[in-house]
Write a structure and sequence with these properties.
alpha+beta, 2 helices, 14% helix, OB fold (Dihydrolipoamide Acetyltransferase, E2P), 219 residues, five-stranded mixed beta barrel
Length: 219
């Protein structure tokens, strides 16, 4: 049974996160599964990409498809969360979309939680930078840090649980319970996860990179 890698944010180097942009070959194709994509001519090493962004940021390209993220040569950008409170258990929307809300509990008093919160923020800033987004159009990037509208509660991180071919593509384990089920995670349960980013997508002129779970440890 795979377990957490404990790749904590203090050892992950954000400067080594990079992206390669892909354009849709035919924008008249409506179904994602039928679309094909080609590498954007401006994608490449970071220096070349930044030079190209100054001339024509990818955020303006009418045929933008998606951006593949890389950490070094790995097409997945992994980090292990600190122990966090899973606010509402596993939430289901549509038919096969499952998410969790992980709360940044006591982030102002807990240095580890504050560090992780800032890491998530800075990761999103790096993603925005690679798209050519700045302060003037920051609203075009959908943050996965969610805030209570009335400011009464601490923010939480929205994390997607991959579901493919009628099964969860996420490992889960407990040190005390022999058999665990993702759908039975109770509200307010403390958990720790390996999470990752792999791609950025564009929807309705807004971009997002969704964190996904690779492994869940019930505490």
């Amino acid at each position: 049974m795979p377990k957490l890698e404990y790749r904590m944010c203090d050892i992950v180097k954000l400067k080594e996160l990079r992206s390669t942009h892909f354009l849709c070959d035919d924008m008249s194709v409506t179904k994602l599964r039928d679309k094909t994509f080609s590498k954007h001519a401006g994608s490449g090493d970071q220096e070349h990409q930044q030079e190209h962004q100054q001339d024509y940021p990818i955020k303006h390209h009418p045929c933008y498809g998606y951006s593949q993220l890389y950490y070094r040569k790995d097409p997945f950008f992994y980090v292990t969360t600190p122990p966090m409170k899973c606010l509402f258990g596993v939430q289901k929307s549509f038919t096969t979309t499952f998410t969790m809300s992980l709360q940044f509990t006591d982030k102002t008093e807990d240095p580890e939680m504050q560090q992780f919160f800032e890491f998530i923020q800075n990761t999103e800033f790096e993603c925005m930078k690679s798209l050519g987004l700045d302060e003037t159009d920051s609203g075009r990037f959908i943050s996965q840090i969610k805030y209570d509208a009335k400011g009464r509660y601490e923010p939480n991180l929205s994390v997607k649980i991959p579901f493919r071919y009628n099964r969860f593509d996420t490992d889960i384990y407990s040190d005390t319970i022999p058999i665990v089920n993702i759908l039975s995670i109770p509200s307010f349960k403390m958990i720790q996860c390996d999470i990752y980013l792999d791609k950025m997508w564009k929807t309705n002129d807004r971009f997002c990179a969704k964190w996904k779970t690779k492994c869940i440890h019930l505490l």
